[in-house]
């Protein structure tokens, strides 16, 4: 099986960040000179816009109608405390929102615009101009953590490890203690009925049901601490994909309420998983059913990995998390997903879930490319 056919060679510019649209059909890339829209299925450029300065964050509505932009990089086009709504059909900014502090991240849907600042999250109706619905205080949130699904928005609470659920229908707030340490990554299922969380420790992944806000599953990514880059549910909600700074992509089965406990014969530690309190919990925890490596890319030595701390100082203003995006997951369908990275070595990789010669489910890399070369 050829798991890595090389599609092209690297000669691209520096990508500051990357973000998927709502259905993962495209991803937007923020550059030192503007932004691009890339097709997720093949990693090919659909739209290139030069704006005469750096864009740290580009969030796309649908395909290319409206794009929310935040200045960033070495020579920002816009101030980091402003969100510009760019109308791609007219190739101009139609409206903007200004804040007292730098914008950490933007999320945009057909109905809502969500702005994450360091210590608050603002929710707006997606109109021109946007209309403010609510604002909530958060703990320090330098990664701009916030995720939106059908009917629900999630973001950090006012205490480390705390998670808030905002019901977009009735504005009701629910709060849980998701982890003991600060949150590092969030994801919402497409139906809005599940939320996945990881803390800055990065060993345990938890899945929460919504609207009950009860724990549905708990997975062990590994024993050693790690930076969890991305969490993503498959479209049907049956699988959770996880990437980390270990350059590993893990896949976990999401249990249903009627599903029995995993068969010890299929558990990583076999019958030891039944030993309960006699052994450390990592012997009984649920591990991924398959994993593989993805490429973080070759970056300058001074670049370094994403910080493990959820309270570090951003090194690149305007860029979510202060570092180029790595390990961003997007599902194309229930068996196919891509992993995208920004930086000097900006990569697109396609993975497929299949079955090997002995009937075991596996995930393998089908192809990859440097997406900015095209």
Main sheet, how many strands, which sense, barrel? Answer: 4 strands, antiparallel
Succession of helices and strands? EEEEEEEEEEEEEEEEEEEEEEEEEEEE
Total number of domains: 1
> How helix-rich are the residues, as a percent range?
under 10%
CATH topology label: Methylamine Dehydrogenase, Chain H
Total beta strand runs: 28
- CATH class, named Mainly Beta
Content-based structural category: mainly beta
Contiguous uncertain segments of 5+ residues: 1-12, 267-276, 278-283, 305-314
Q: How would you write the strand order of the largest sheet?
A: 1-2-3-4
Any guess at the CATH architecture? 7 Propeller
Measured on Cα atoms, how large is the radius of gyration?
Answer: 20 Å
What overall form do the CA principal axes indicate? globular
Give the overall pLDDT as a whole number: 87
The portion of residues forming beta strands comes to: over 45%
Q: Count the DSSP helices.
A: 0
> What is the terminal separation in angstroms?
26 Å
CATH H-level superfamily title:
YVTN repeat-like/Quinoprotein amine dehydrogenase
Characterise this structure:
It is a single chain. The protein is mainly β. Helix content is 0%, strand content 45%. The strands form 7 sheets. A 4-stranded antiparallel beta sheet has the order 1-2-3-4, with no helix packed on it. Strands 5-6-7-8 form a 4-stranded antiparallel beta sheet, with no helix packed on it. The chain has a 4-stranded antiparallel beta sheet with strand order 9-10-11-12, with no helix packed on it. The radius of gyration is 20 Å and the shape is globular.
């Amino acid at each position: 099986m050829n798991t890595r056919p090389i599609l092209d060679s690297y000669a691209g510019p520096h990508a500051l960040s990357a973000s998927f649209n709502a259905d993962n059909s495209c991803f937007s890339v923020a550059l030192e000179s503007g932004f691009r829209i890339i097709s997720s299925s093949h990693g090919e450029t659909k739209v290139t816009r030069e704006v005469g300065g750096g864009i740290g964050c580009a969030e796309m509505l649908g395909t290319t109608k409206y794009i929310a932009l935040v200045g960033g990089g070495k020579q920002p086009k816009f101030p980091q405390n402003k969100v510009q709504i760019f109308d791609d059909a007219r190739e101009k900014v139609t409206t903007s929102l200004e804040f007292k502090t730098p914008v950490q991240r933007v999320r945009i849907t057909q109905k809502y615009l969500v702005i994450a600042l360091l210590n608050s999250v603002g929710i707006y109706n997606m109109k021109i101009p946007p209309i403010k619905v609510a604002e909530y205080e958060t703990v320090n949130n330098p990664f701009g953590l916030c995720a939106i699904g059908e009917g629900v928005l999630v973001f950090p609470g006012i205490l480390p490890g705390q998670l808030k659920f905002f019901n977009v229908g009735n504005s009701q707030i629910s709060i849980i203690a998701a982890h003991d340490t600060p949150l590092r990554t969030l994801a919402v299922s497409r139906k809005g009925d599940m939320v996945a969380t990881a803390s800055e420790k990065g060993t345990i992944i938890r899945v929460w049901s919504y609207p009950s806000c009860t724990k549905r599953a708990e997975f062990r990514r590994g024993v050693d601490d790690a930076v969890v880059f991305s969490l993503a549910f498959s479209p049907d909600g049956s699988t959770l994909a996880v990437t980390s700074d270990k350059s590993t992509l893990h896949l976990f089965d999401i249990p249903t309420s009627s599903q029995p406990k995993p068969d010890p014969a299929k558990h990583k530690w076999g019958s030891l998983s039944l030993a309960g309190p006699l052994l450390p919990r990592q012997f009984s925890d649920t591990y991924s059913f398959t994993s593989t490596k993805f490429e973080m890319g070759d970056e300058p030595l001074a670049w370094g990995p994403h910080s493990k701390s959820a309270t570090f100082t951003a090194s690149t203003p305007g860029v979510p998390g202060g570092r180029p995006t790595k390990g961003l997951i997007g599902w194309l369908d229930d068996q196919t997903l891509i992993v995208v990275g920004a930086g000097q070595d900006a990569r697109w990789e396609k993975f497929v879930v299949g079955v090997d010669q002995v009937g075991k489910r596996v995930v393998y890399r089908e192809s990859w490319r440097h997406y900015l070369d095209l």
